[in-house]
Amino acid sequence: xxxxxxxxxxxxxxxxxxxxxxxxxxxxxxxxxxxxxxxxxxxxxxxxxxxxxxxxxxxxxxxxxxxxxxxxxxxxxxxxxxxxxxxxxxxxxxxxxxxxxxxxxxxxxxxxxxxxxxxxxxxxxxxxxxxxxxxxxxxxxxxxxxxxxxxxxxxxxxxxxxxxxxxxxxxxxxxxxxxxxxxxxxxxxxxxxxxxxxxxxxxxxxxxxxxxxxxxxxxxxxxxxxxxxxxxxxxxxxxxxxxxxxxxxxxxxxxxxxxxxxxxxxxxxxxxxxxxxxxxxxxxxxxxxxxxxxxxxxxxxxxxxxxxxxxxxxxxxxxxxxxxxxxxxxxxxxxxxxxxxxxxxxxxxxxxxxxxxxxxxxxxxxxxxxxxxxxxxxxxxxxxxxxxxxxxxxxxxxxxxxxxxxxxxxxxxxxxxxxxxxxxxxxxxxxxxxxxxxxxxxxxxxxxxxxxxxxxxxxxxxxxxxxxxxxxxxxxxxxxxxxx
Length: 484
Ligand SMILES: Cc1cc2nc3c(=O)[nH]c(=O)nc-3n(C[C@H](O)[C@H](O)[C@H](O)COP(=O)(O)OP(=O)(O)OC[C@H]3O[C@@H](n4cnc5c(N)ncnc54)[C@H](O)[C@@H]3O)c2cc1C
Prior knowledge:
By secondary structure, this protein is α/β, with parallel strands linked by helices. 39% of the residues lie in helices and 24% in strands.
């Protein structure tokens, strides 16, 4: 192997994993991160000693390489934590995963019966096509369960009706789950170590997920890699199908950094729009049409040592805007500096520029206090302080047109000799940390001559088999794009 100088864009899980694999193989990565800290969406923020995630980040994976890395970096500071999460709907708390007696008590005999009847109805007369989320879920669970457990929460997350969300998203996220399986699971304690572990415990760094990525950064730097913070990549300079350098803006100054190779985890739409000379108009148009869902957390510091047992609670009730509530102290006791207090993260799904996103922080904190009290989680008067953190592009959106746009971009990028995109927004795929990391590991192997298709990670065979809708036709033929 000859040593290559590799520019890695982004110091989130994917970028740092790429850098680690590179230093291990004797290459010299320079990681460029626009933010003041590492970890990307999996970072840990801090306010007056209170630590919190951008959405609680569980560490769970079936990918051995990733699991080994997590344990290597964290050692004994990787805690095994008990999990409790519930769903709040119609004034009641449902255990999630469901527990038979709790679910029955909350729903009552009549509604439970209606759920089973509605399930049977859709087993006999399903929607003939499964183009959208509503059809996909209703065919598998019946309308009653769809309305209680899927519709309101999903619409809060995405901000659009379930009929406008592609079936692929459900297929990717809910695959393997069915009503009979859920009932079996609710009635009988799962057997076997793996399933039990998945449901009842998870691993978590003592000081939150950001700790993992700080340790990974140290490991990369210890082997000669560089991680530069506050470096916003503003242009990706190319000569035909070769990237020759990237330009970064740092404290108002622009610098050009040459490299043999680029691995990018920045959002795909931004990468395409930053190519210099620009990508063909059809590709830029496709990039501009990819959409994202944003996210904000209202953190409340509550003057109570104990609020509730859950790590997090899904809020399905449409009466409140909040979508999920984290109790960070239950993730790890080290997340709060004073054991006589607790900190809650009220998570609001929004779109950059909408009313929630633009709401002043003080109003958001008031809203959070009111809603925490309305749900019965904490008294507004006990919330002694608060802070708001906004996260752009938290979720790549799978709308009815994204597949075609992604195909246009993917085909264009395939023409490059020395550019690969990795991670969640880098592939516009709903990847968790483990799959984001796996794409980075495979990208580095590609650089050393292997041939992995990163777009196939987290797209299992069962997923292909489940999706029964025809793929949308790509508007421009790949050959046209390449010629342009
Ligand atoms: C609410 C929520 C909850 C989640 N929960 C879990 C969970 O429980 N478990 C789990 O495993 N995963 C979870 N995830 C997913 C996890 O956050 C992602 O899989 C992971 O962060 C993706 O890593 P990444 O490196 O691909 O991207 P990112 O984390 O997005 O990192 C990309 C980095 O690139 C940087 N960047 C972007 N543009 C530029 C630029 N122009 N120049 C320089 N740098 C740039 C960004 O600042 C960022 O640091 C959750 C995600 C969300 C939104």
